[in-house]
Design brief:
Layout lengths: L10 H22 L3 H6 L4 H71 L6 H19 L2 E4 L11 E8 L8 E6 L1 E4 L2 E4 L1 E7 L13
Parallel strand pairs: 2-6
Antiparallel strand pairs: 1-4, 3-6, 4-5
Helix pairs in contact: 3-4
C-alpha cells in the first residue's frame, strides 16, 4: 500500500520536470515578444531596412533626373552663348562694312589724284601720298583687302565684266585691265572689281569663240 505523504515524484525526477517547464516558458516568452508581422519578416529592423533602401533608390532616381535637367540647361545656355557671340560678330561685321564702303570713294579719289600728279615731286604730292597711305593702312588693319585681278582669269564671284576686249595677246577669259579695283572686308566681298576681259577676235566667219 502506497503512503499518501510520499511525493508523487522522486527528487531527481522533479528537477527534470522543472527544467523542462522552464524551457517551455522561456520559449513562450520569446514568441510573445514578436508581433505577427515581425515574425513573418524575420524580426524587427528588417522592414526598416527595406524602407530605407526604397528611399535611397527614390533619391537616386531624383538625382539622376536633376542631373539630366542640369546638363540639358547647360547645353542650351552654351548654344545661346555661341549664337549671341555669332550675332554680335555679324553685327560688328555689317557695321564695319558700311563704314568701309562709304570710304572706298575716298580711296579711289586719292588714287586718281596721285595719278594726275604723277609728274609733281613737290611737298603737296608727298602730303597726299602720306594721307592716302595712312588711310589705307588703317583700313587694312581692320581687314580690308584690295581685289586687283589684272592678268588673272576672270572670276564672276569677285569681278564684274564691263567690257569685252578682242585680243590675241591674252588668253580668252583673262582680265586685261581694271577700271575700278574691288575690295573685300573680313573675307567678304563689298565691291567687285570692274574689269575688261579678253575675248578672241572674230574669225573669217565673223564670230568669236568666247562665252562672254
Amino acid at each position: 500500500m502506497r503512503d499518501d505523504k510520499q511525493p508523487a515524484f522522486e527528487p531527481d525526477e522533479l528537477d527534470d520536470v522543472v527544467e523542462e517547464d522552464d524551457i517551455e516558458i522561456e520559449f513562450l516568452d520569446q514568441d510573445k515578444g514578436l508581433e505577427p508581422a515581425e515574425q513573418a519578416s524575420g524580426g524587427p529592423g528588417q522592414g526598416e531596412d527595406l524602407s530605407i533602401q526604397d528611399e535611397v533608390e527614390h533619391l537616386k532616381r531624383e538625382l539622376d533626373h536633376v542631373r539630366d535637367i542640369y546638363l540639358r540647361k547647360l547645353a542650351e545656355f552654351d548654344n545661346f552663348r555661341k549664337r549671341t557671340e555669332r550675332e554680335r560678330e555679324d553685327l560688328h561685321q555689317v557695321a564695319g562694312e558700311d563704314l568701309v564702303r562709304d570710304l572706298l570713294p575716298v580711296l579711289d579719289n586719292f588714287e586718281r589724284a596721285l595719278q594726275q600728279a604723277s609728274s609733281d615731286s613737290g611737298a603737296f604730292r608727298e602730303g597726299v601720298e602720306m594721307i592716302a597711305r595712312q588711310l589705307w593702312e588703317t583700313l587694312e588693319r581692320r581687314g580690308l583687302e584690295v581685289v586687283n585681278p589684272e592678268g588673272h582669269p576672270f572670276d564672276p564671284e569677285l569681278h564684274e565684266a564691263v567690257q569685252r576686249v578682242e585680243t590675241n595677246e591674252h588668253a580668252p577669259g583673262t582680265v586685261v585691265w581694271v577700271m575700278l579695283k574691288g575690295f573685300t572686308y573680313g573675307g567678304r566681298l563689298i565691291r567687285p572689281a570692274m574689269v575688261g576681259v579678253a575675248v578672241e577676235p572674230p574669225n573669217e566667219h565673223g564670230a568669236g569663240e568666247d562665252g562672254l
